[in-house]
Amino acid sequence: MHRSLISAAVLALAGVSAAPLMAAPAAAPVAAAKATTQLPRSVSPTHYEVSITPDAKASRFAAKVTITLNVLEATDSITLNAADLKFASAVLTPASGKGAPASATVSVNADEQTATFRFPQQLAKGSYKLALDYTGVIGQQAVGLFSLDYDTPNGKKRALYTQFESSDARRMIPSWDEPNYKATFALEVTVPGSEMAVSNMPVAKKTDLGDGRALVKFAQTPKMSTYLLFFALGDFDRATATTEGTEVGVVTTRGGAAKAAFALESAKAVLHEYNDYFGVRYPLPKLDNVAAPGRSQFFGAMENWGAIFTFEYVLLLDPAYSTQADKQAVFLVAAHEMAHQWFGDLVTMQWWDDLWLNEGFASWMESRLTVRLHPEWNTALNAVNVRDAAMARDSVATTHPVVQHVTTVEQASQAFDDITYQKGESVIRMLERYVGEDAWRNGVRAYMKSHAYGNTVSDDLWAKIEKSAGKPITAIAHDFTLQPGVPMIRVGETTCKNGATVLTLTQDEFSRDQPNKKPLSWRVPVIAQIAGNGKQARALVAGGKATISVPGCGAVVVNAGQSGYFRTLYAPKEFAALASNFTRLAPIDQMGVLSDSWALGMAGLQPASDFLDLAKSAPLATDPQVWGKIAGVFETIHGHFEANPARQKQFGAFAAARLAPVMAQVGWTARAGEPETTANLRAQLIHTLSGLDDAATIGEARRRYAARNSDPAAVPGALRKTIMAVVAQHADGATWDELHAAAIAEKTPLVKDQLYSLLASTEDKALAQRAMELALTDEPGATNSAAMLAEVATRHPDMAFDFAISHMAKVNERVDSTSRSRYFPRLAANSADPAMIGKLNAYAGANLAAGSRRDADTAIAGITYRIKVRAERLPAIDAWLAKNAN
Ligand SMILES: [Zn+2]
């Protein structure tokens, strides 16, 4: 699954963590020896024959399923997962066909999401078929079988899709809905004959039923987990290409296939790479990517085997409104979901404890492949932003280990967080660098081969890598995955002797909210280098200390290449040497040094002004992404001054003046043949300068917006979103009304969704209030409401949280049921008001189970830290400004 990217695109551009901080109560670092189950182990399914007749208009479906199963211990009952299903009959027959059928009485447990079938007699061990007749509901949010309504030039249409990860297959099929109960599936659907039905496998047979309906039978799937099953139905187009024996396809709503051309072309290139990398060919006959209008608060795309589901905003591209960042997101998301076709779909974690095996790996693979296939985007530098997002979450007391024990459906849902994704990705990057690319890939190939169609735990992967690398890695991997937190490497004073620099490294822990914490212990692989010298030295810091001799003399960079998951704190003299050699560092090390000095400065471990010194002296020719990092931090500092408009204005003026020459160099108009990284920097600088209330930028965006109808060059497609965002952020009432009228009139779902988000992005509180009221009406459409409130919350968190709490029932109807416990705390996550801590505690106490407080507790930790930073660090920034501004 790829997490929701709705506001992430903007935030990632701004160089800040995409997701608000998220948290868990400290879970015990348990590697599950035996897979957890919430179902009795006495029965196990092998095959499902499913027949579904959806009634899209009435939002319900009728269905039958025949499950072939093995009774492993004599029992008089069978329990499986079911949610919101009504059973009409349940009959069990011996699979041999010999023996009398037995009818069961059904009891449903809504809290446990189970159905139990009781039989008059004990069932002996053996193989049976359980036939169930039932009905279910079609929802409006992306959970289970759901509908999405969208506008077309010919009026509104409705399409159906499914979303089952982590625990929602049970809303369409009564099933053993846990990842380790793998089985085969044969799906047939009775649907309007004019519509297209899509599932994991190709259509095997379509029969016209003569009444306008058709019976569509899909080929049987390989053995797989329930959460990977998929079905979609609608007025669709499908475009295909064949590569290496596999048919790759894109499915869109009618008329949209041309906008999916880049996704289709990317799928071909990615499939070729993965067939090679994994050493096992893609095993299904086809691989579709199904684009759907709308959005979810929870995810952007889902890796259903053979039928990836992706929201349009990360699949379709249109030169009239898509940005360079959109294009990169389409590739990244497709590369992520396609990596899951192997890592997740072919080989699946036993239980949600090891979810990171799926997500950390797919995230690492998406980054790796983007660097490889699109070097012109220079995305290698993103590794630092990924690491920062993980560390923001991992350096407060509410963090949790990468491998964590999950006991409830709610906890499984909450496991899709920055630790699972970004820390997982960062740890893999470090370990791959440690053992080397070839050893890592060979280990992965051996793992795929041994566990195809099966389930694994993390140690199964470490065993294969260790064998392939021929050196110990499991102990290091355990340090970083079974215990929480961020190591900090202290670099002592260096000496230079005989052409080599000798330095002492000491391992500490980077904690933002427990300054006196006794550090945990890690074995940390470290790479060091002298600025401007190509030769690297490696060491494994174990037992808390290491001495390392680095070839050459001069300023030393620790964590050269930035693949290590740790913060680096230099002795003052060593930092000063590095700062004066900043331009000699590789761009990725410039990113790393900026990132560490900022994080350590805010935590009080290094002067808060060190980052500003670097930002002040960065030359114009600095890499666009390094400028992006600086711009992102400027926005954060500007936000910290919100309680004091005079100081905020002073800082805003300094930051805008610092960025103005960069903006002047980049310009508002794209030059033919400019690097693609320049297009991203342009969008980001305009975004940042708008956030800094820079009058020139706001004025230029307004001028272009006003001229949009008379001058086609005023708002080029690639800059449309960026310009509109500035106009909306600083909108007055008349502009807001104009945007609102445009939203109502718009027929393209992607553009319409964006317009509704813009209405919620205003600095003006009265207009933000109007946006929230509008969000709770039927006008924006079922999947825009929650996104609008979340958009308001980025600028006015207290207002958005209070509003959502006072309209909780209405808000709950508009949020996926799986993400409610995360949605409300996230609205408050950007607050700096001490009163919010009490409000969040009250919300959690009244609405969340004890084991589901993770996001609430993390939001509280974030707010507490923000209050502390503002009180303790801003005076140093003020003092620096007094000396350095102007
Ligand atoms: Zn994923």
Molecular structure report:
The protein has 28 helices and 31 strands. Strands 6-5-9-3-2-12-15-14 form an 8-stranded mixed beta sheet, with no helix packed on it. Strands 1-20-21-19-18-17 form a 6-stranded mixed beta sheet. Helix content is 41%, strand content 23%. With 886 residues, the chain is α+β, with helices and mostly antiparallel strands. The two termini are 48 Å apart. A hairpin with a 4-residue loop joins strand 14 (203-208) and strand 15 (213-218). The longest helix has 22 residues, at 645-666. Bound molecules: zinc ion (ZN). Zinc ion is lined by residues 1-2, 303, 336, 340, 359, 362.
Helical content, roughly? 40-55%
Write down the overall mean pLDDT.
Answer: 94
Radius of gyration: 27 Å
Chemical compounds bound to the protein? zinc ion
What features would you highlight for this structure?
23% strand; eight-stranded mixed β-sheet; alpha+beta; 31 strands; 41% helix; 28 helices; 886 residues
Secondary structure topology:
Elements: E1 2-3, H1 8-13, E2 43-55, E3 60-71, E4 75-81, E5 86-94, E6 102-103, E7 105-109, E8 114-123, E9 126-137, E10 144-152, E11 155-163, E12 184-192, E13 196-199, E14 203-208, E15 213-218, E16 231-234, E17 236-243, E18 246-253, H2 261-278, E19 286-292, E20 299-302, E21 307-311, H3 324-340, E22 348-349, H4 355-373, H5 382-394, H6 409-414, H7 419-435, H8 437-451, E23 455-456, H9 458-469, H10 474-481, E24 486-491, E25 495-497, E26 500-510, E27 524-530, E28 536-541, E29 545-551, E30 556-558, E31 567-570, H11 572-580, H12 587-602, H13 609-617, H14 624-640, H15 645-666, H16 676-691, H17 695-706, H18 717-729, H19 733-745, H20 749-759, H21 765-775, H22 785-795, H23 797-806, H24 808-813, H25 820-828, H26 834-847, H27 854-872, H28 874-884
Parallel strand pairs: 2-12, 18-19, 19-21, 22-23, 24-31
Antiparallel strand pairs: 1-20, 2-3, 3-9, 4-8, 5-6, 5-9, 7-8, 10-11, 12-15, 13-16, 14-15, 17-18, 20-21, 24-26, 25-26, 26-29, 27-28, 27-30
Helix pairs in contact: 2-3, 3-4, 4-7, 5-7, 5-12, 7-8, 8-9, 12-13, 12-14, 14-15, 14-16, 15-16, 16-18, 17-18, 19-20, 21-22, 22-23, 22-25, 23-25, 25-27, 26-27
